[in-house]
């Protein structure tokens, strides 16, 4: 693994090894790694989330896994490795991509990307499984007791909505339907995206209502950690407003 070689080079640097030799060795290691795997990146609507495409299968087609916290990634060797990188807040796995969400705007992608690249390349070179005894999302699987409306909702989510959302590095999970209200959960880059509410109301809700008149509204289901994050954000926003008021 080339990261171990990098550590060797750093140790050699401390021993006053010729810097030109180190540069040459580093270039060879990097070139060799890129030849075996070329990881591309793709921007998402969320500036704090970036989509990484390793060029190999991550999960089975149509499957996704969301790890909003380090503790939730206990079942994924890849997820656990990515959470070891300082500044990583969330990891989302799709069929052929990995979405990484950073903590905030203060951490720059140019500092995070090299280590994420190295971690992804090292992991897929290791041959370890992406998941250990974990069951990916199967929320849109049609069940015998599903009503006709629920079946239509699941079909629309699978065929019309999810492909577009996954293209942006996230996913949308069906959580339930009751009295005309569709409950959905945003994952990956969409979970903390400033435009997620707009996406739900102007995009998803309008489409579902167009095909299914019985639907009254679409609501976003928030996890406890999402609620805490929102509260902390509100506190920070209040502090900034107070500070601005004092400086005027």
TrEMBL record:
Gene Ontology terms for molecular function: iron ion binding; iron-sulfur cluster binding
Single biological process term from Gene Ontology: iron-sulfur cluster assembly
One annotated Gene Ontology cellular component of this protein: mitochondrion
Keyword terms of this UniProt record: Iron, Iron-sulfur, Metal-binding, Mitochondrion, Transit peptide
Domain Scaffold protein Nfu/NifU N-terminal residues, every copy: 39-127
Function: Molecular scaffold for [Fe-S] cluster assembly of mitochondrial iron-sulfur proteins.
Classification via PANTHER family: IRON-SULFUR CLUSTER SCAFFOLD PROTEIN NFU-RELATED (PTHR11178), NFU1 IRON-SULFUR CLUSTER SCAFFOLD HOMOLOG, MITOCHONDRIAL (PTHR11178:SF1)
Protein family per UniProt: Belongs to the NifU family.
Stated name of the protein: NFU1 iron-sulfur cluster scaffold homolog, mitochondrial
